[in-house]
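User: Can you fold this complex?
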Amino acid sequence: MAMPEKYRQFGNELVELLKLRTMPVAVKMLEKRETPENALLPKRDLGKHLTLCQAFSLVRREGRSVAMFKEDYWCVWPVIALGLVECTKKCVDEVHDKMFIKDPALSRQVFENSFPRLEYGRYAGMLLSPLPKTEFIPDVILVYANPAVLRSMLWVIRCDTGSIADCTFEVEFSCVFATVPVLQTGKYRATFPDPGEYERAFAAEDEMIFSLPGSKAGELVAGLKAFEKMGFGYRQFNYVMRYDFARPRFYDDLFNMWGLDRGEIWPR
Amino acid sequence: MTLTVKDYNKYGKEMAELLLLRHAPIAVKMLKNEREIPSGTIQPKKDWGKHLALCQAFAVVRRERAALTMLKEDHWCVWPLIAFGLVEFKEGEAYYEQTVTANFVEDPEKAKEFFKESFPRLEYGKYIGFSLAPLDTAGFIPDLILVYLKPSQLRSMLMAVKYKTGRLLECAFDGVDSCVFSTVPVIKKESAYRITVPDPGEYERGLTSEEEMIFSLAAAKLEELMSGLQVLSAMGFGYRQLQMEMQLDFPRPEFYNNLFKMWGLDEGEIWKR
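Assistant: Here's the predicted assembly.
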């Protein structure tokens, strides 16, 4: 089994190969209430609660390790999706029409059939750490990336599997869609940060979330390195400029006077 | 202390790390004669059969990590040829008026005055050209360094300069001739540090992105700048350490509170949306 040290190396390699602005986030699901000494417990340590997207933000931007148990949350959706509470009929009645879907009956159907949820009570919480500093083996890794970086990661998957990540895009619940389906299926995903993640956790307008099972980190890094070896790595893509471009006439006149090469005159 | 080529390379790597630069800082060496041309550099006309605008040369170096030498015959734009003194360009001679009045100043008299007083120029014939390479791999001691960066990275550069010098960086901005304004005043020692907005040609043909600016410095100032960046980083004020502060326990929709109450969790303020 790969040790945390190997994952720290994967984290550093991802940052370098993809020139990431913020650190990849290592996510470990906790079956019991176990908290490493260095992890922040928001309610206990700050007297505050976090949304899960704010916790991701603290980890990837500030390099904090954060443990999130039921009492640390400030948003209903991850609490339901991660099975930290029982979503009873009363709970469904309360949330089913809050999904920005016009028809309440359809909205209930979407919540019941398509909203990703883990079994109630299976996990006590979640531990988060920047991947380059992780002390644990992650179940899921999240990489916040601009579309050009995302393209490079999706390319690796396409190269290995013949198709890009199996994604159905949602515009809400990004913390849920970036994690729960990956835990359930073991597949890669790309997710849009949702409006709450934009407003309260400050995801940038050009950021998306790429998530992968922790077990596939080595495969992704190897693929990124293979693409770089072929000259198709993220850091190697460049705009191809047009040389000897068309210029104003006085450029041509001056070049002629100076004994230099002449070229096409622009139509401007 | 006199910096060696290795010192410059090391600083190039450190700067890229501290500022998370997307592309390499550019080392520029002015050449007085052909013997000074660093070996292994590409000369666009001789080696590619092509000419480059200077902004394109900067792009090739920072994005593609190539090392270039640009002599007179390698250029494709008039302004750097004039500004670097690679050609003779005198008042009263052919095309002078036509050229200096074609630089986006409405009144021809003001255009002539602007060119005389504000367009940066080196003495004709002093240099035969210059060599360019990524700072972290350049095989020569540079005279000048250019860094393409975003405003938030530029902020860190400005903090470092002020931290070390106790002074503000004073700069005059032009909307055109970015290859000239980012280099010549620094070579002439009129400014140790400069900020320049990439010009329309650099955008259209050098394919500079809309959020990039150019920070340039005399190579002799690199040690000072890097020291500033390092100290600020050690103080927790480095580019990578500045973070937006989030509001925790923010106001939420009423049904959040209802559910949190049902689950035995903490309640809070209701939002007004």
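The mean pLDDT of chain A is 95. DSSP finds twelve helices and six strands in chain A.
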